[in-house]
Specification:
- It is found in: Cell envelope.
- The chain is an all-alpha fold and about 230 residues long.
- It has a single domain, classed as Cytochrome c-like domain (Cytochrome Bc1 Complex, Chain D, domain 2).
- It has eight helices and two strands.
- The protein has a two-stranded antiparallel sheet.
- The N and C termini lie far apart (about 65 Å).
Length: about 230
């Protein structure tokens, strides 16, 4: 084949390939628009939990984990009340006989995944700014005073508080947990010998509650008018 014919053929092929690529790129948005949109998830679709979160949900609603056998996490953090108290009491009643009043109002557990884990105070540089509204308030941590840096540490507090679920110590919680209807499931998730190591068992139990609060969308629905 003559040289000029070979050169012409190569140029033509290159230009045609480039033109085809441009046409494909131009038509891509129209093809995407014509494609059927994915069907939205039904409004009543159930959340898919990790194994730990599924256990945490069972524990969250289990009143048998309290000394009275009548108080669960949900007793004070009611799902139908934005995970806050279900009544108008300034502080909820608990303890072994359900007659001891807590020392503080119950905070909502909504949007715990957005809270700064570590307690901090970003202080203004000058004294005049510190005394004005420009000075930042302390932030971070869980609980009203931010004493807990990790959510699973906060989860243990009501279980051991004498005015709340009133367990004497973590061992008392584990004794109840070991006889719970879901104890076998707890072993499946965290190991058949999990209860032989009390420290690890209690840590994993609190981790399960933490995962439930982080994974269940009802804790962070983002359905207010400001979320759209």
């Amino acid at each position: 084949m003559p040289f000029f014919a070979t050169r012409f053929t190569e140029r033509t092929a290159t230009r045609l390939a480039a033109l085809a690529a441009l046409v494909s790129a131009a038509l891509l948005p129209f093809a995407a628009a014509a494609a059927p949109a994915a069907a939205p998830a039904p409004a009543d679709a159930k959340p898919v939990y990790s194994d730990a979160a599924a256990l945490g949900k069972l524990m969250f609603f289990d009143a048998s984990l309290s000394a009275s056998g009548k108080m669960s996490c949900a007793s004070c953090h009611s799902p139908s009340h934005a995970y806050g108290p279900p009544n108008g009491l300034a502080a909820q009643l608990g303890g072994p006989d359900m007659r001891s009043q807590g020392t503080r109002a119950v905070p909502s557990l909504r949007y715990v995944l957005n809270r700064t884990p570590m307690w901090s105070h970003a202080q203004a540089a000058s004294m005049s700014e510190r005394l004005s509204e420009t000075d930042n308030a302390p932030v971070g941590g869980f609980g009203w005073d931010g004493r807990f840096n990790r959510l699973h540490d906060q989860a243990s507090f009501p279980l051991l508080n004498p005015n709340e679920m009133a367990n004497k110590d973590p061992a008392a919680v584990l004794a109840k947990l070991e006889h719970a209807p879901y104890a076998a499931r707890f072993k499946e998730v965290f190991g058949q010998n999990i209860f032989t190591d009390p420290n690890k068992a209690f840590t994993q139990a609190m981790y399960a509650i933490e995962r439930f609060e982080l994974e269940d969308p009802s804790f962070h629905p983002y359905t207010s008018k400001f979320d759209y």
